[in-house]
Amino acid sequence: MLIVLTAPRALRPASFENGVPMSEPPIAEVSVGPPGLWESFLRRRLPYIVVLLVTLFGVAYTSVAHQPLYGFWEALAIAVGVLCVISTWSTISDRRGHVQLIWKQAAHWAAILVAMNIVLLPGVQRMLTAPATGLTMLLLLALGTFLAGINTSLQIIFLGLAMALAVPAVVWLKQSALFLFLIAAAVIGVGLALWRR
Question: I want to staple 152 with a disulfide (CB 3.0 to 4.6 A). Which of 79, 88, 116, 172 is the partner?
Fold first, then answer.
């Protein structure tokens, strides 16, 4: 889209060349194009994507290192709580609604943090392996995110569902890692055999 700005005719000085009036050149040309759909989509969803990627990193690290990340899950729960408040803030018009939102989210995430810390108690830790602790923490975080989304936004609900689906996905991936590796090796082998011909 090209926008051409010109001065009103009354304000334009008359231009003459050899006694013949000349047409006025435009004062400014501004090219304004809509932002790319993909860029706009990513910009709006970036906080949710970052939280999901950080969550998956935490699950992967816990599964590989066989030790739970104690402060990681609590910090991530607080970050999701802040994301819930920020994503809903603009939809509330009055101060009372803002205060109510903050208190509801603070109480909600405090309950989730208490549940997470119960899982991390030494007596409970003796009954769980490190990967099981990580998956339990992820499940609590997913549940908290989903329930917070019911009061805030649909994107938070979907983030909670994605986190919850990561639990069985990690378990399945861990159980079938050797099988997936053999399939990948076979595909690469067949690809190299066909490529050399």
Answer: 88
